[in-house]
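Retro notes - structure team

What went well: the batch runner handled both jobs without manual restarts.
What didn't: labels got mixed up in the shared folder, which is why I'm recording both outputs here explicitly, each with its sequence directly above its tokens.

Job 1
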Amino acid sequence: MAPDPAETKWKDAPDEHDYPAAADYLALLADPANVQRLTDELRAAPIVHKKAKDILRAAGLTLLPHDNPHVAADLDKIDKGKSLSPILLVRGDLVSGAPLQIADGYHRVCASYHTDENTDIPAKIAAPK
């Protein structure tokens, strides 16, 4: 069982390996120049806090179950008091209907949601041009 949401710990900044992981995902959606620009923008972006439930809704993604191996691993980290890495997002577009993209951290969002859907998750957000 995961601890109270107040006990969920977060690192001050994303892990260095999160940026190449985000770029690998974004390469499925954008050309190399835009992927590089978005990755650079994510590195420079300040940390903001967004609720787990809102991130999933804006991305149009379903909540992964707590027994998904990656979600379970993050829930285990929470249970052991280990800090999770902030997530990396690319802003959606309300007018065009383009969803928010979780460039890195989908499993962490789901694990956080399982502890409390109102969990404030630290994130960096880049904007498509």
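Job 2
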Amino acid sequence: MENHKIYAMKFSKIYSLLVQKADKKKRTKQEVDEIICWLTGYDEVGLTQQLRNDVDYKTFFEQAPCINPNSEKIKGTVCGVRVEEIKDPIMKQIRYLDKLIDELAKGKAMEKILRA
């Protein structure tokens, strides 16, 4: 497994960037939290605890209670890379989250973002 720089970044830093991106497009922190919890299986308490523990991004995904099985329905490109073609499972989950937040920022309805 490749050692990507993003793995060592603090989840709290990335989280604030995700919230900021959503906020710029008139979306809410609550929507960002809902997406993160849907994807990872964390509840609000678990998400808050991970932020408080200041874990790195890789650890955040490694400790995720249950990656949503519907995440396999997430298709498309992030940073020029097709998410469905990513082999590394942690990187794939990171890019899934990127893709979902991109969809939120583009104004997509939550039901569609969450693959309901």
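One thing worth noting from job 2: The mean pLDDT is 95.
We'll revisit the folder naming next retro.
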